[in-house]
Specification:
The protein has 204 residues and is α+β, with helices and mostly antiparallel strands. The chain has one domain. Helix content is 24%, strand content 33%. It contains five helices and seven strands; from the N terminus they run ββββααααβββα. It has a seven-stranded antiparallel sheet with strand order 2-1-5-6-7-4-3. A hairpin with a 6-residue loop joins strand 1 and strand 2. The chain is globular. The protein starts with 12 loop residues before the first strand and ends in a 5-residue tail after the last helix.
């Protein structure tokens, strides 16, 4: 399952895709792939009913998976090559691309505020872009950014950050979390099927 304009990345990345147009909105490629990635999988077992022990072997769906990793952003190489954006902005664009994953669009905020001023009581919650974790060609997952922390470690003369460490906590979204038939749900299903295929491979 791919999306039009999806980058073919040899490195890890966080990619934001417009849910309506399927257009790639932003891509933050990891300058250095993290040395470690921590995954936690929690099985979704069926709740026991009336003490029926047979329920203990039943699954309600895919496990809840969370992923934690640390990403380093560094503009040093770009500054040495005198790249215009790095000189003027440092790593602000990369940091902003990550942060806006958990911001609603400003146009939606303005629209909602205007409706509130006109007396609208119920406002539809604003939709974020679909976020993908790209980790090699065998792991492209729809995720939700649970939280992240940014440690800015160096600045230029204008106090633009030029080096930072970002700790990401991601919740993998599966077909239980997403509308069935939507691209993100299909993407996770493809990941599930691929995992079954990999599990069937036997080593000598």
């Amino acid at each position: 399952m791919t999306f039009p304009g999806s980058p073919k990345l040899p490195k890890g990345a966080i990619v934001a895709v417009d849910s309506s147009t399927k257009r790639v909105v932003s891509t933050v490629t990891f300058q250095y792939n993290p040395e470690t990635l921590t995954r936690n999988l929690q099985p979704q077992v069926a709740s026991e009913k009336n003490g029926a022990k047979v329920e203990a072997l039943r699954l309600e769906g895919a496990p809840v998976e969370t992923i934690k990793l640390d990403v380093e952003l560094d503009a040093t190489d770009q500054l040495e090559q005198a790249e215009k954006n790095a000189i003027e902005l440092g790593i602000y664009p990369q940091l902003s691309a990550l942060e806006t994953l958990i911001y609603p669009k400003s146009t939606q905020v303005i629209s909602n505020m205007q409706q509130l001023e006109r007396g609208m009581i119920e406002i539809v919650p604003m939709e974020a872009p679909m976020t993908l974790l790209v980790w090699g060609n065998k792991r492209v997952l729809p995720v939700r950014l649970n939280d992240f922390s940014i440690t800015e470690e160096a600045y230029d003369v204008n106090l633009n950050p030029i080096r930072a460490k970002v700790s990401l906590s991601l919740r993998v979204l599966n077909y239980n979390d997403l509308p069935w038939g939507k691209p993100a749900s299909k993407l996770f299903l493809a990941h599930h099927i691929s995992k079954e295929f990999m599990a069937a491979i036997r080593y000598c």
